[in-house]
Predict the structure.
Amino acid sequence: MEQIPTPIWYTITPKSVFKETVQETSDLEQSPYYVLIDIHAQEIAELRARISRLEEQQASGQQIISIAFLESEKLILKRPIIATLLEGETYIVDNAELNLYGEGEDETRAIRDFKVVLEESYFSLKKDQEYLGPELKRRWGILQQIIQEK
């Protein structure tokens, strides 16, 4: 009766695994072979998709901008916010993660409008936080991570 080889797993790094099995080449000789199992495949695919979206945005005339401070007497940013700037007849500054945007006749006014919308959204969600549904709770959580009251 032919014996099926039992796989032996070796951890190389926390995220990479090699599998060793024994392949029979004849009755007297056995030789091991190794197969790399990539458990980063999903993470890599997600990163590639994000890069593709960013490249598409750049190709379509959108720019990636960083907003490092608010022009607010009540709030400050803990860390910069990444947004996209779309140039056209009207300039639009958009943050897809927060589902917020600002618009204006030029880049400066669009950024200023975005900052106002961000501040209004913060205080609106803060006021109604006990009544928020799942999506708005997610946004409120993000705002709490990036904004601090003075």
